Amino acid sequence: MALAELPASHAPVSSAPPAPPTRPRVVAVGTAFASAGVLALFAGLLGVYLQRRGVILGDKGTWVPEDSKFPMHQANVMVVLMLMSSVVVQWGVWAIRKNDRPQAYLAFGLTELFGFAFLNLASYTYSVMHLDVDKGEVPILTYAITGTHLAVVVAAMIFVALMAFRALGGQFSSRQYDGVAAAAMFWHVQVVVFAVIWYAVYITK
Asked: How confident is the model at residue 1 (pLDDT cuts 50, 70, 90)?
């Protein structure tokens, strides 16, 4: 039987339609550059903080003003919240890769909840630190580092929320999940940043 006379079910494999092209990973690449910028920014801020602390400790023997404090209980809870949120956001990525949308929505919702809890605890921590900006370099550098991190947390929460809404609209699946993976990557970066802040600012004060 000639090739042209074969039924459609016996068509050669080479005649099958090509697979749809993979979308360019613009979001993932852009997030990688943004994450690198965030890490560089905090490396600079923490470098200045540690350098000035070393100089002042050498001159005065003390860094934190007498009537100020860095509360450890709140700081410890904040770092635990961040570590838990990192696990949960990665759970959301895993769920999308498995096409399990209910678990993905639950994971992203819990991530946002952890973010709001962190912001609330951070605002309370500010209220009990008694660090007035007129007390020298300590409050200025502390607020510069922790306040910048809070801004990054808000940006990460917005990023996760946007990707969750896109997932709700069916734009992500097991085949294409770069957006949610990028949001999770940015979230992990800010968690790592806070872990370093927690150690450098609150633990080794």
From this structure: very low
